[in-house]
């Protein structure tokens, strides 16, 4: 059974399968289209929403966190690019794991990608709803509050009101209480849901359903609009910068800066999603690697510049708002610019929603081809040339939770699934180098011999920890075994993994860049809360149950091996 769980697909076999099953997809995407889709995915809810909270916690120094996370993503993007040039099919990290680690890991990654694409789209849809409601109010159109938010907000606000009184409520709590009081009731339960989030998901799903060409055109237009407005924010905001707002640069220390990791990383999620369109590219082996690197560099530069502008225009303590870009221009009295940003942000977030809604069905389509999901998921629409059934299911999976769940429930959870996928892709490149698969790659991660460098880095990091990390070490001494397991187990895993990779790099002369990608992503993972990991483990358990009940038996590789035995 062990051999069957880790059975691998060869690159040649995957390419043959894609030609057999995937000929119905339209090949129309070039480098410019791919870069546009990548920017559409990356520049969305992150820069228009979560960037404010990250700046509030970390101060102006959060700009360095964007550099650090972009640095981490570069190593991962290089690994993705090598796989994309070797295995130019729609499965993204799922297919790459099938080649490198075998079927069980491929399933786990495919299941984790549901968190990255489908669950992150729930965040994007909810964020879109917030901006849309604000934009409508700017034009004098007021949607009833009970139609604009998750019921959890209204119920929590009502409970707070009972404890402290209505006069003590501010911000979102005051709005949520209004939703609770004005909502129609089913018995004692208020009927509250986020209608705009559900509707935009349905509309975008329809656009993705009717064709890749239509989606690409819509994405290109929306990307040009939002990049234009972001450049306008940077150039226009530069005239309102007060250098004293950058002091202190890191008011809450490194702890405050690193607390924004989930929000900042969420702002970068998406560069890998373009690998799911490989079978709709004109020349995927040449164009996908270029597009991933281009869109990552462009977005990193924009993020750093806009963070410096925001924290220079207003004090970081004023940025804990849901629409920071519009807020800073209202703050300096430039209301017309704030209004333009509010409208543009709706367009920007729509484009991010479109790309993720495009990516998820293609993952399910590829898993279905391999027999791990029901055959219906691989259905290609005869007219529109899209994975029709998988697209409709994605629409339902995203729209229903977006109607009823709070946004903060999903943000960290999305990052957990993505980090997991990124680590396996970086590890997969090491496997390709060891087995000689890299010889088939038209793009390769630049090789830097890590034989000694990985181990030297480990020794230096330990030494720096003892010199500069005394506060952290004293905290460890106060923790009991239970606290270490719950809150610090991933930190232990990080240092243990670095030690193991140091030894393996010395023995196998591992390439330094993929190893660095593994370590940086694992470190970022260790900064996420324990509750997210508990939910992620539960999610994986559900996925493994589905695999062993259906996928293991119906796997195409399993059927091929059985037929050979007969």
TrEMBL record:
The keyword Cytoplasm does not apply. Keywords: Membrane, Transmembrane, Transmembrane helix, Transport. InterPro entries: AA/rel_permease1, CAT_C. Coiled coil: none annotated. Gene3D superfamilies: Amino acid/polyamine transporter I (1.20.1740.10). It is a multi-pass membrane protein. Residues 512-555 form the Cationic amino acid transporter C-terminal domain. It holds the Pfam family AA_permease_2. The chain crosses the membrane at residues 34-56, 62-81, 93-114, 191-209, 221-241, 253-271, 291-316, 336-359, 389-407, 413-432, 452-469, 484-503, 532-550. One of its GO terms (molecular function) is amino acid transmembrane transporter activity. It is found in: Membrane. One of its GO terms (cellular component) is membrane. PANTHER family: CATIONIC AMINO ACID TRANSPORTER 4, INNER MEMBRANE TRANSPORTER YGJI-RELATED. This is Amino acid transporter. It comes from Sphingobacterium paucimobilis HER1398.
